Every structure is written in C-alpha cells, then in structure tokens.
Amino acid sequence: MKVSFCVIAALFFISANALAQSSASDTFVGKIKVWAPITLNCTADMAFPDIVANVAVAGGLRTTDASPVPGGASGHNMTCTVTGQVGKQFRVTRPATPISFLVETDIKIDSIDYPSGGDLRTLTTSPYDFEVNGKLQAISAGAVPNAGDYETAALTISVAYNNI
Hints:
- The protein is mostly beta strands.
- Helix content is 10%, strand content 24%.
- The chain has a single domain, classed as Sandwich (Immunoglobulin-like).
- Strands 1-2-7-5-4 form a five-stranded antiparallel β-sheet, with no helix packed on it. Strands 6-3-8 form a three-stranded antiparallel β-sheet, with no helix packed on it.
- The longest helix is centred in the N-terminal third of the chain and has 16 residues, at 5-20.
C-alpha cells in the first residue's frame, strides 16, 4: 500500500500540534488597592439661640435679643471635616429626630440637616468640609419655666465609605 507524501505530512502536522496543545501556561500578578482610612471631626457642639424663660408674648418665646423663637429656629451650623480616599463616595449618618433636651423635655430638635448636599457625598478633596445644622420645634410660652443651661444627651454623626 502506497501512502502519499501529503498524507504523511498531514499526519505529522496533526500529531505535532496535538503534542504542543497538551499543556500551556501564562503569568499574572496579584493587585490590591488600599484606601485611606475615613475619619470625621466636627468642630463644635450645636448651639441654639438663648431664650427667655416663661415670657408670655405674642408669638411665643423670645431670644435674649428679643427675636421670636419660631418653629424651625436654626441651630449653630457645625462644620465637620472628613478625610479619606479622594474620589470615593461616603454616606453621612445623622441622629434620628426628634431629640429632647434633658430636664426640659418640651424643648426638642425636630430635624438635623445639611445646608447643602445630602447624606451621600463624594470625597472630592481630602480634607472635605460640610456643615450640619439643627432646627428646633416650635416652643410655646410657658413651655420653659426655669432658667438654666440645658443640653441633649450625646449625639453621634458618622461617616463611612458607601457600599462597603
């Protein structure tokens, strides 16, 4: 039986390729990106205007400079500074409201909010500053009968990278 040269060459080529494909390898490296830790520092407590106790005037209580204390009186805008990984999103968690003041529970903070922005932010620079303010509920005359210094229990604002 006569086998042509082309058939022998084809068989050799097929068997050589089969041997070459019986193993293979590739190289790789492991990579990880480590983010800067996220930190939060707020500069001051939230201070509201001073008021005069139990002064019955039209419109309710008055501050010590005679301004009315309507519902929604803003507290001191606290500046908070976040440091961390630039370009990453973070979420701000604020206390639940309403928040009663100790002793004089008729005084309440009925919202804590941000003058600009919301709970989800992007760390565009590090450090990154944002403000937090609070608003009082309406305080009626006679609701605060005693002069004194009042405060809430400790309140916590926290930040964390989003989706971690």
